[in-house]
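User: Hi! I'm a student and our assignment asks us to look at how structure tokens line up with a sequence. Could you show me two examples?

Assistant: Happy to help. In each example below, the sequence comes first and the structure tokens follow. Example one:
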Amino acid sequence: MIRLKFNLLVSTYRNREDDCTSELWYLFRELGDDSIEVRRALVPGLLLVKTKLDPFEAAKRIGEIAKERPWDVRYTLKLTPIDVVTSDNEEEIRRAAIDIAIKKIGENETFRITINKRLSNLSSKKLIEEIAKEINRKVNLKNPDKVLQIEIIGKDVGIAVLRPDDIISIVKITTS
């Protein structure tokens, strides 16, 4: 199977992946990308999306649409921008995570590593230890400036350096 080099991880309700896909096509067309690629992840309720737009900006703009017109965002629950995609090979994950962390976490910024693992036997603890020792930045587990997020979904792995407000939760937006 050819891997999709996704740059956005989208969660939806189980068995509503097709509805969410249609909604995403509609929303991204409004944002200026009429050629997004969407693939179901092996886990129910997760979609891998490839957009030509900046995924961080696109997620924020969809959050704004949800706030202004909640009826247009009914199936999209959460959007997580992704900086880089790699295979589930431990060494590739380690290398990609260290590279992106050093580029995007400032020398005076604090960070935390978060791993969301689905359909994988990789050791989160081992990965975190191996990656953290190579990043010469201060760690703050409770209130970091940036989060090195590693999303492992079977053989698909997305890695991003995120500020706390980069992950867009539609439920939080529409209920606040």
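Example two works the same way, sequence first and then tokens:
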Amino acid sequence: FPLGNKGLVSIAAAGQGATALIPTLNPAFSISSFGFNNYIYDLGFGAGAGIYYQFNDVIATGAAYYTGSASNSDFGLFNGDFGASAQVTLTPSDRFGMALTYVRYYSPQPNVSGFLGSQFAQSPFGSNTPTSSNSLGVSTSYRFSDRFTLGGWVGYSNAIAESSPRNNDFDGSTGSKADIWSWAITAAFPDIGKLGSQLNLIVGMPPRLASNDVAGRRDRDVSYHLELSYRYPLTDRIFITPGVLVIIDPEHNDENDTIGVGLLRTQFNF
């Protein structure tokens, strides 16, 4: 619902996250979860609320709090997993935008990278070690012309073990820390072939555990995500999107074979 003539407030009982109101500045349509937005936006999903306020043509701010444990009487809204987000969005021109994002996350059964990236990145200290994280993100986009927009983001999380990783038989202690990184470059080419169509290219590194106080639990190699898709309007309400994505060295392990996926998606808008 509106907050004056410059703001919006969103409240959800389930199934919502920070991006319900907070812009991600990604110009590309994606066929993968990784390509939609910086992974830190996905830390916290479920019940909660968000607010977005446009101060002027250049500066806007947003904040959100979401939890996946609201329906559990043992945890409720504030004692289980949660993600609390804050963002400043800068749009000094109609061509350029930049967003600076902070997310505070906690979960007793963690997924620090939002189901993306390696298993080490998702659970640096083991899946049964309560974990918090402080995440920072920078997202940007620039429209060079009506037919080409370039975007991208960098995400970083500092994860902290809130109990001993020894519960998972790992050599660590309460307060152990780990660093997770991710980045992507996105490109959108609207109206290629037909008005309303868009060619999309995404290249990036899924969340990677770069360092960890717990010995033996970090990613030693680097995975790369390559994605190409073409969104084509059959009618004003029906779109088809053929696409292909390739993951090189999955799980940030150069001993793993490259994975390739092709798809054809149909979208109906009502």
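Here is something you could point out in your write-up. The first strand starts at residue 2 and ends at 3.
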